[in-house]
């Protein structure tokens, strides 16, 4: 899941399925307030999974102590220290909430920074990273993958796509672009670096992905009713929405016996797991079934 922005699940929308790992891909809060972090922790506690990995996003600026200090110092008019302490906590308090949750219960909460790359450009200074004199931010989608905005602009990151193309993970999860909720089984074109551009050019979604053999599992456009829909298409969408309502999760499975078994090194399952979205459709977490290698016996 991603982009919960401090919201807890309502009772009728709370997932009830067990998972081995729960992953939150960023934007735990809307304004990085303590009350929002506590709400998010309540939500995470309600999920049945022994391991819970959490990545901070650009909205969660109090997780980045240096950025928090800078943001408070630059505020106009100046913020009263008592107000800051009450709403946002003292420096490090938001992180301490997750440390307490990790050590005080059976679940493990890991605040990932280096792996998750929660780094942001202006106007969100938290986790800022500068590369080639350009500000990049994560976790947003890889460019070309589930990254269309409502304005039909691609908002993904080309550098991140290039990194994913080189690594070719089994799963690449992200959020940030709320309207991009969906999943796609991406098939890489080549057995090498994922690019036919030459060694001096990074791969991109045109050169590295075999789109003819990269089925879209689901996306919001496949759920929303359109005036162009036939009666048959409209009924199909109603069935999908009812299935989501009952299961409380969008599901996809890529094991050996499935219709789309994932080919390790040849394919990557891309998932935009944004929860926050429009009012017409309740966006659900994704429940992914995938085969992983067993841990070697010591």
Describe this structure in words.
This protein is α/β, with parallel strands linked by helices and 298 residues long. The chain folds into two domains: 113 residues, Metallo-dependent phosphatases (Purple Acid Phosphatase, chain A, domain 2); 142 residues, no CATH class. Helix content is 23%, strand content 17%. The protein has six helices and eleven strands. A four-stranded mixed β-sheet has the order 6-10-7-8, with no helix packed on it. A three-stranded parallel β-sheet has the order 1-2-3. Strand 4 and strand 5 form a beta hairpin. Helix 1 runs parallel beside helix 4. The protein is globular. The protein starts with 20 loop residues before the first strand and ends in an 8-residue tail after the last strand.
Strand order, largest beta sheet:
6-10-7-8
Mean pLDDT: 83
Order of helices and strands: EHEHHHEEEHEEEHEEE
Strand-residue proportion: 15-25%
Shape: globular
Number of strands: 11
The overall number of domains is 2
The span between the termini is: 33 Å
Tally the helices: what do you get?
A: 6
Structural class designation: alpha/beta
The profile of the biggest β sheet is:
4 strands, mixed
Helix content: 10-25%
Rounded Rg: 20 Å
Q: Uncertain segments of ≥5 residues (pLDDT<50)?
A: 113-139
